[in-house]
Amino acid sequence: MVPFFYMKNTAYIVLVLLLIAGAYYGVTVKNNESKPANTTLGVMNENIQTLDTDFEWGSTVVLEDDFGVPTSEITLSVNGQARVIATTTGSCGTSNLPLLENQMNSYLCWWAGGGDEFGVFVENGNIVVKQGIVEEGSEEYEGFRGNFKVLKTLAL
Q1: Are 82 and 122 found together in one domain?
Q2: Which of 41, 77, 83, 136 is the most buried (most CB within 10 A)?
Q3: Same domain, 43 and 74
Q4: Which residues, 6 or more positions from 51, have their beta carbon under 8 angstroms from its beta carbon?
Q5: By residue range, what is the domain housing residue 111?
Q6: Rounded-to-integer distance, Cα 45 and Cα 50, Å
Q7: pTM for this one?
């Protein structure tokens, strides 16, 4: 016969595992359903005038090292014309991060707790494509999002 103490601990372990699985589902599956990668400038940020310009992010894994770490090439199509924007480490997809001031969309490449965020911004009458850093943080330190650098500037 199994002592009650072991049955009680097993129940707690199962409960914790179910909570973790539910949180994982909520963060990964549900968040990936929220925004499309194809965005018309001005639709996602009401403070910016609506422009007749379509943006579509894309990425292709161009290399995978011996440890399985992917290197992805990031492209941005502007009105159907694709441009290579950058090459970075990680698997990429549409971001669910809240948009920053003047940011129209967000595309995220992630690997092992951190990554690069790419975004289209409107600044001083120009479309500006930027790359920034995103880190998830831990109990010891707060996550980070910032250090955006201009990759390309396109006149409106």
Answers
A1: yes
A2: 41
A3: yes
A4: 40, 41, 42, 156
A5: 37-155
A6: 9
A7: 0.66
pLDDT of the residue at 13: 58
Cβ–Cβ < 8 Å for 87, 75: no
Report the SS3 class of residue 117.
Answer: strand
> 29 and 44 in one domain?
no
Phi then psi dihedrals of residue 18, to 5 deg: -65, -40
Q: Strand pairing of 38-40 and 103-111?
A: unpaired
- Copy the structure tokens of residue 66: 């011996």
Q: DSSP labels for 38-84?
A: EEETTTS-TTSPP-S-EEEEEEEEEEE-TT--EEEEEEEEETTEEEE
The reply to whether 65 and 28 lie within a common domain is: no
115 and 136 within one domain:
yes
- What's the pLDDT score for residue 131? 96
pLDDT score at 137: 86
Spans in the chain with pLDDT lower than 70: 1-52, 155-156
Does 58 share its domain with 103? yes
Q: Count of domains in the chain?
A: 2
What backbone phi and psi angles, to 5 degrees, belong to 20?
A: -65, -45
Residues 107, 97: contact at Cβ < 8 Å? no
The answer to whether residues 69 and 48 belong to one domain is yes
Per this entry, what is the length of the chain?
A: 156
